[in-house]
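User: I'll paste a sequence; please echo it back and then give the predicted structure.

Assistant: Echoing your sequence first, then the prediction.
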Amino acid sequence: MDKCGILARRGNPAPLSAATASVIKRMSYSGFRTRESAGPWRRNRSRSWVPLLGGIAVATIMSVASTANAYLVLPGATFDISGAPALPPLGYTKFCIRYPNDCKSSRSDFRRRNIVLTAQRWNELNFINRQINNAIVPKPAEEWVLAPATGDCKNYALTKRHELLLRGWPSRALLLSEVALASGEHHLVLVVRVKGADLVLDNLYDDIRSVGVTFGEYSWVKIQMPQNPNFWNKVRLLQTE
């Protein structure tokens, strides 16, 4: 991936792991609300903050997801990743030599399928997506490294995956995926697979979106295999009714 989307939405930083915290300037944290009464927030294209949903169960989030203000749309498009194998990006292969723990598949992962999207997990995904989008200054980069001071899409996606692994998310649910933008530019995002949905964590958006919402905006190229993150497959979308 010689080129990469690097426009990042701004958020409000907070302490993450030691690696990521090293590039975050200490500030007060007041953006994404973690209290139960606050619930998830979203930012619209004009960059103004508006509350999306507050103090409600994830089941309610699902039921209202078809409204105009919601990006989490269920049911929607899902992945078919059982197609032809694809070569991993060369930079990712080098990344795995440097960070072998991020490229392992744990036996316990195979007992943790169909991750339920609880309110706590939804909050955690939003927290990680927004904070890392703000922590890394967008700038073209060559190296596939974790938590750099400046970087592009691959650095955002790798760091988000790393942070979620540290928080106990199974590697089989955290899949790096290469997409092509309408401009033809290739871009790396993190797909989080939960029961009933494939969610996209993207440095171009502070909002977490379902794969279905990206239809027509992104052309999906290839994705990591859940069974082993060192193997990649070509990917296509399946439209569900």
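Residues 10-16, 20-75 have pLDDT under 50 and may be disordered. The two ends are 34 Å apart (CA to CA).
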